[in-house]
Structure formats: C-alpha cells, structure tokens
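cron nightly-structures :: item 1 of 1
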Amino acid sequence: MACTPKRKTSRREYETPRRSRFRAYLEEGYSTSRAAHLAKVPRSTARGWISTGDRRPGKERPGRPLIISDEKMKEITEWMTGHFDRRAMPLHQIAEVFDIKATDRTLLNAFARHGYHYHIPDCKPFLLDEQRLKRWSFLIANWDRTKEYWQRGLYYDETTVQSTLRRRLKILRKRGERRRLDCIQFKFQSGRTSIHCAAVIGYNFKIRRTDLAGPLRRYL
C-alpha cells in the first residue's frame, strides 16, 4: 500500500503527546524553559500553551455575525408557509420584501441553514380518483352500445395554457413538505397570463377554430 506524501508547509504543528509531556514536566516541578527543552518545543510555543490554557476550553467563539439572522429567517419562513406563489418567488424579490441587503447566494445559504432547498413541485393530477372511477363505471355500463348511439353524442374537452410559463417552476420547501397543498403546482389556473381552450367534437362534426387576434396570437 502506497504511503501518502506529507504536505509541505512552513507551519509546524505539534501533536497532543508533546503538549501533554510539556504539562507533565511542569507538574513535576520543572521550569518553563526546562520543560520546553525536554519536550523539544520552542519556548515561545510553550509560553503560548501556558497563556491560552487547554486546547478546548469549552467556550464557543463568537465568529463573524450572520448577515441574515435566524430571527429574520424564521420571519421569512412563516411568511411564505401556506402560499405557493411566495415559495416560488425569486430570491431577489424575497430580499426586496424584507429589505435584506445580500446576494442571492447568501440568501440561499441562509435557507439551506434552516433546511430549505429548491425543488420541482408535484403537479395536481389530471384526473382525481373519483373522476377515474366515474369514467370506468361509465365504460362498463355502456360498452355494448351501438354505433348509432355514439353518433348522437358530442364530446367536450378543455385545457388551460400558461402563456408566461417557459420552464418548470421551483419552490423553496423542506424535506417532508412535498405533499403540502402549498407545495403542489395546480395546472388549471386561469388568469391574465393564461389562455383557456375548449373544443367539442363528434362523429362527422367539429366546431370551427377561432383564431385569437392581438398579442396572444404569438402564444399559439
């Protein structure tokens, strides 16, 4: 098995046994210079060990304060919980709402600190289980109908097209919130940026196509 070469550095590190031997010499009554000589460490390092005490004093260093505090992140998460549109907002818009002077990367790291990440939301199913059962029951009850019976019927369908949706949305959520109602994308939502299409067909029949005039023509 090949040995991993040691990294070359000008900084010299002393392992714990050497520090322990130095403290043991001090407890035996040796002076600081004599204990440093026996432990084979510089006297400046020995004086630093005495002044700083143990390596792990049990105190947490304060460090640099967070740009976005935990209290502010709690306020943001409570604000967007229960609202799909707020979860899907871009990071710079969330920063504008809460007057946060930080980059998108800093805000994204703050969300990750609390367990929030971007995920593609689940979509509302095209047919509910109750609707599937009704269609299946209708098929079983009318499977032996004649062709003339079906020729007398008209069949209607509709859908909604989002004109401004150029990609799948992503929302901020935590692990385990996948099935929340505010984390599910509902497809059929009519509005100023959507086009609602409907059609009726039958045997030897279909409605005339209507072309939309104006700026909506380019979405078709």
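cron nightly-structures :: done
The longest helix spans residues 129-141.
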